[in-house]
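seq:
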Amino acid sequence: MEVNQNAVGEKLKVAIIEPVGGHGGMDYYDFGLSEGLAASGVDVALHTCDETEAVSKEGFKVVHSYKGVYGKDVAWKRGLRFVWGSIKAIAAAVAEQRKVCHFHFFHVGILEAFNVALAKLCFRKVVITAHDVESFVESLSVPRLSRWVYRIADGVVAHNQISKSELIEKLGLPSGKIAVIPHGNYLHMLGDMPEQDQARKELGLPKAVQVLLFFGQIKDVKGLDILLEAMPEVLKEHPNTILLIAGRPWKSDFSKYENMMTSLNISHACSTHIRFIKDEEVPLFYAACDLVVLPYRRIYQSGVVLLSMSYEKPVLVSDLAGMLEVVRDKENGFVFKQNDPKSLSGKINMILQDMEECDVVTIKALSDMKGHYSWVEIGKKTKKLYENI
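struct:
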């Protein structure tokens, strides 16, 4: 008779293999999930890059298996280091009897496929969190590599129902393989926020203005151009408005947005910080703003929405299905019609006209972060997925 080891007191052991970590802001997510799992009694080893803080807490440890995989070295050297990091991570999982290897993918390429194949060859159970479905759903023809990788996985995490539907429709995954587990809050990682006046002074902003914040990696699908097109109408009604843009472009040339600012005659109302925003700088930008605006034209899940709600800042988002699973208009945030600058400007003007309403929605948003988006709850659901496979 087979005995369930967990039933006799042995902890479930898991290796989370996520190389991006502190290099691209995934450390927020990694630490939240690891702490949530540890709170549920799971023994976690997080294998990530050497740009991630080395922390050691009860129930999980951080291992810098991926060293030198980012930077200015030639691609083939960094690729070899990545492969070596994966070999070390999965070998450690085998040696430490970690039955589950949990990967986090924004896209599937050769290196991601290598990781999954190696884990399966080492008789590990494989779980994949599909963070960014759009990266492999650019057309009706889904790359065979993505299809193969997700199909051989033992379990897949989707952050919402729209992502699950895409995984079923585009990759042909059986519904029973997919667990819908939300992206968690950022309450565990919030830095101390300075006073608003002090934050604005440090960022070179006037005190007596209303500040809109566009925060995060700047991609074409995030619709910064839509927000810029809406700004002239906003400035007509609220001339003391500043658009604060903070983030690093990704496969996008920021000069096109600068040209738009000039042609729309709004450059004087835009403050830009076009670079990677370090963790310790994030509170500064949130302290300075009155409203976070995310005019995305295509997205499945936004960490910036949850970060904003965790910081108790009101959010205005486009009415995409993935957004609407998190934000309810005038209840815990605000919603406008996607790809519609007129709808966006109208909503911004309405909010700026009555900022007291923001106090109501931020209270509800924070309550949601502490409840449904709690990492403790997410840890319980993820542990259940591990046990099921």
